[in-house]
Automatic annotation (TrEMBL):
Residues 1-26 form the signal peptide. Pfam families: CsgG. GO terms for cellular component: outer membrane-bounded periplasmic space. The keyword Cytoplasm does not apply. This is Curlin. Keywords: Cell membrane, Lipoprotein, Membrane, Palmitate, Signal. It comes from the Bacteria. Residues 327-403 are annotated as: Disordered. It comes from Fulvimarina endophytica.
Amino acid sequence: MQRRKTVSRALLMGASLLLLSGCVTSSPLDALPVVDPVNQPNDELRRIPPPASKTVVAVYDLEDLTGQFKERENVQSLSRAVTQGGAPMLIKALQDAGERRWFTVLERKELENLLRERQIVTEMRRIYKNEVSIDANVLPPLMHAGIIIEGGIIGYDTNIMTGGIGARFLGIGGDTKYLQDVVTVTLRAVSTKTGEVLTSVTSRKAIASYALQGGAFRFVKIDELLEGEAGVTYNEPKQIAVQSAIEKAVEAMIVEGSELGLWRFADPHAGAAYIASYRQQKYGNRFTAAAAAPVQPKSSGPVEVAATVPSAPRQVTVTQRRVPASQARAAQQGVPARVTPAGGSVRQVPGVGFVPAEDASDIRQPVDSNPPQLPPARQADEPAVGMNRGSDAAESEVQVSRL
């Protein structure tokens, strides 16, 4: 009997090990990748009433300004507490506003890559197609925005609220614990024309974490003990919390921008109802008359952007002219040739030719690289120049004429 129990325990242990090894390779908790589903903050952002016209905005970055690192017990961690991908989240939120009806977002985060790629297009067409100027239909001008959307993650506070509750009776019971963190995001719209901060908003999102567990510990018989436990823990991903806070900030910026006249709703009645709902959510019973009529920014028409229209390439006409012989000789001697402008006064410079009168003073006389040679020395039996000695007078005159 004892031997049979030992064999049964060995078989049970082997089956348990097989189950554990199977869980390592394939777990029921594993899931296939899915597209990010629409949550409540994103759904509210998509349901904003459409605008009268789209606004061109530029996003450079949304930095992590908290400076905090992940907390670990007895271990120093260099990983950041919050995500560093704020800019992609902000771009996605601006595109989701009103189902892509509110903003035209321009790429500025990786502007260097964009300019390098355009330079490659220009160089390739210059090398292989001999193009001096690129056709605007092939490489049109870059768009520019009237408003820049900036901001950052300015706060991440941990253990804002902690607590729990539990109960146990006769060795059977359970308990639950919860923990809450808060992340804070700020956004601002800046006018490209004047640099004025048109509007600034702040949003917060709580990050919830909880644990639920239960267990039993009791003697079924005098020599038999029943013990079991089960539990589950959930930690909300921090990047999802940051994304939700950014989406709420974009929604708030749209409403407050419409109050300031930066943009307007296509349907005034739907826009007024949406603004009233936002004010109730933001102010509650603290809404004042001054908040109903906010002070307008000094920048006029900040969203209006003049499009860059490519101008027609200038035609360059090359006229061939006959170069005078004097100018050609001056060019060979190193003197720069001058072209006489039409209708201008000219002046003749020896050795150069006719040049503009205002440039004649700058021209130097050409220097002959071969200086004149001196006459040969007089021989001993040769009479001096100018002396007449009978029959040698004619010969002397010939020599003088030769000199």
